[in-house]
Amino acid sequence: MVTWSALVSTLAVLGHAQATRFLGRVSPTTKELTWPATGVAFTFTGTQAVVTFSQVIGSNSLALIVDGGAPTIIDSITTNNITTPKLKQGTHSIVLRKRSETNFGTLVFQTVTTDGAIGKDTIPTRRIEYIGDSITVGYGEDGTYPCTNTAALEDGPKTYGALTASNLSSDYSLVAWSGKGLVRNYAQSTPDTSPIMPQLWTRYGGNDADNSYTFPAASTPQAVVINLGTNDFSYLGVRDPLNATTYQQAYVSFIKTVQSHYPQANMFLTSSPMLSDSYPTAQDAQHTTQANAIKGAIAQVGNSRLHFVDFPSQSGADGTIGCDYHPALSEHEVMAGILIPAIKSALKW
Questions:
Q1: Is the dihedral of CA 137, 142, 146, 149 positive or negative?
Q2: Alpha-carbon distance 188 to 205, whole Å?
Q3: How many angstroms separate the Cα of 240 from the Cα of each of 34, 168, 187, 218, 303?
Q4: How crowded is the C-beta side of 196, counted as CA atoms within 13 Å?
Q5: Where are the alpha helices (DSSP H) in 262-328?
Q6: pLDDT of 36-62, one tens digit each?
Q7: List of residues 6+ apart from 250 with CB closer than 8 A
Q8: I need a labelling partner for 61 at 20 to 30 A (CA). Which of 143, 158, 221, 247 fits?
């Protein structure tokens, strides 16, 4: 298990330095923070800094980390400025990340000002990209079941993806959206015909046009983690069960698409902790069915850089479940504890 306290540790593997930089997938043209855990990072010498947004749209929750300390949680931003506490004169590091996902709200970055001087923020040379649904978003992670998810209860910077990246001294990007699938979106009485995740993955910002992402070389990840399928497998009462062969072939197609952009990346394809072999029926055996389909896709593509990672069905014990049966922090720590050694082994990190 990897604990939240590890997330605020100092990065050990560092690359070149620059001034204020974007975290996650953020278009340098629009400067809009859309995806979960997107944000800005910088260092400055002085006593106080202010991050200013030109637009605050909808509901947004943020986490502010000063000098690697515990995060200050901003459940809802009500102004266009985020100001650090008054600090002792000196050099300080600032990380400001969005906790909530695109469909709740977005922020358009404008500038950073200080009472001193902006320094150079050091960039990790390691990069991990996560592609997923509500689990990767951190949906309801800070809630206690039963609860209703809100922007304030989502926590992208404390997900299994963020925990894994921190442990491996890596930059990370969460390209994820609740309710999305690989083949089809979450089952509901009125069919969800909105874009599925492979389509959204081609966007720079979550609300940008399809195929707007330019795949800049400096952002190319060495590891890609895909956690999709929970919503595809949902069906009870509103549609037919998912055809496992259809799911497997869609995975093959998406793997090849991702590989076409990241040919040297290792890919880690995970099962869903929200699928089990007992619900909705034992005959469905959804967790095993999904795992076998992913393994089948890997065998079909036949590439040594493809790896299956099994996230066991969540226990459901008190304190481990957030809103709508989603993983709480303790469950994300379990997932990170499984993913970290898989990436370490494959990439020799």
A1: negative
A2: 26
A3: 33, 41, 10, 43, 32
A4: 18
A5: 286-301
A6: 999 999 999 999 999 999 999 999 999
A7: 182, 183, 198
A8: 221
